[in-house]
UniProtKB/TrEMBL annotation:
Binding locations of ATP: 141, 186
EC number: 2.7.1.50
Species: Acinetobacter piscicola
Cofactor(s) the record lists: Mg(2+)
Pathway, per record: Cofactor biosynthesis; thiamine diphosphate biosynthesis; 4-methyl-5-(2-phosphoethyl)-thiazole from 5-(2-hydroxyethyl)-4-methylthiazole: step 1/1
Biological processes annotated in GO: thiamine biosynthetic process; thiamine diphosphate biosynthetic process
Protein name: Hydroxyethylthiazole kinase
Length: 289
């Protein structure tokens, strides 16, 4: 995307939110997720579908992987949230994506856009992402290269993997708040830009083995959607990232090889509780420079 209209800027003013307040709201969101078990409509890529569904089930949500144009509208009408991932788009899936996004936008249902592979080298999917931005997704989530490219910067990526660090990008991503309520950037630390709170939240934790597991980023986008069904965009985005960061850290304490870590990570997603969030959530609120 080369041009952004109605660019929103975050002012360099002290934030009024506190980490203790946010931590309490994350615990509330987690509790509501367990109670409501929201139905999440996922249109995701073929590599990620099974893994994303298992993560949502482990976290307490109810996933449905409906990605054909003949059912997209009817299912989007009953879903509590929508997650759109452009990882391996087909012609029919692209139709379903557009139909579902238009449907939830008309109903004011929260939805997450994960612009996998956005950039000049994959023009077809990138053109669809540009169209979807006009529908104003609730939350945009991606790696540093994707978010930087989406904000109008020329980025050399490694396929669909990021070639730059998340901390290098969050300032560049501020203009994207003209199109959504939150922007989430995944990396060694995750950065969440909140329009509501006029702030950036840095989430720490996790494990360096997470990027070695296929579809962890895609599953994170789906989990953000699940939380968005029970909370505000900022708290939903923060809750999903905290959930993943704690699970990654706890899983690595039990398993240091990729295969066993993968199992331990899914277990940790399932075993998270309010006490663990209170003790282990590691995030800070940053001022915009």
């Amino acid at each position: 995307m080369n041009q952004l209209e109605n660019i929103h800027t975050i002012q360099s003013t002290p934030t009024l939110i506190q980490t203790d307040t946010l931590r309490a709201e994350v615990i509330t969101a987690w509790t509501q997720l367990q109670m409501q078990q929201p139905l999440v409509h996922c249109i995701t890529n073929s590599v990620a579908a099974n893994y994303a569904a298992n993560v949502l089930l482990a976290a307490g949500a109810s996933p449905a992987m409906i990605d054909n144009p003949f059912e997209a509208e009817s299912f989007a009408n009953i879903a509590a949230a929508l997650s759109i991932n452009l990882g391996t788009p087909t012609s029919e899936q692209m139709q379903a994506i557009k139909i579902a996004a238009q449907t939830v936008t008309a109903k004011s249902t929260p939805w997450v856009l994960d612009p996998v592979g956005y950039g000049a080298f994959l023009k077809w999917r990138s053109a669809m992402v540009d169209e979807l931005l006009l529908l104003h997704p609730t939350i945009i989530r991606g790696n540093a290269s994707e978010i930087s490219g989406l904000a109008g910067n020329q980025v050399q990526s490694k396929g669909v993997d990021s070639s730059i660090a998340s901390h290098e990008v969050y300032q560049q991503a501020i203009p994207l708040l003209a199109h959504c309520e939150c922007v989430a950037i995944s990396g060694e630390s995750d950065f969440i830009l909140s329009k509501e709170h006029n702030a950036v939240i840095q989430v720490n934790g996790g494990s360096d083995l997470q990027p070695k597991i296929t579809a962890t980023g895609c599953a994170l986008g789906a989990l953000i959607a699940a939380y968005s069904a029970v909370s505000t965009p900022t708290i939903a985005t923060l809750s999903a990232h905290v959930h993943f960061a704690i699970a990654g850290k706890l899983a690595f304490s039990k398993a240091q090889s990729v295969g066993s870590f993968n199992v331990a990570f899914l277990d940790a997603i399932y075993e998270l509780n309010a006490e663990t969030i209170q003790q282990c959530a590691d995030f800070e609120i940053l001022n915009i420079e």
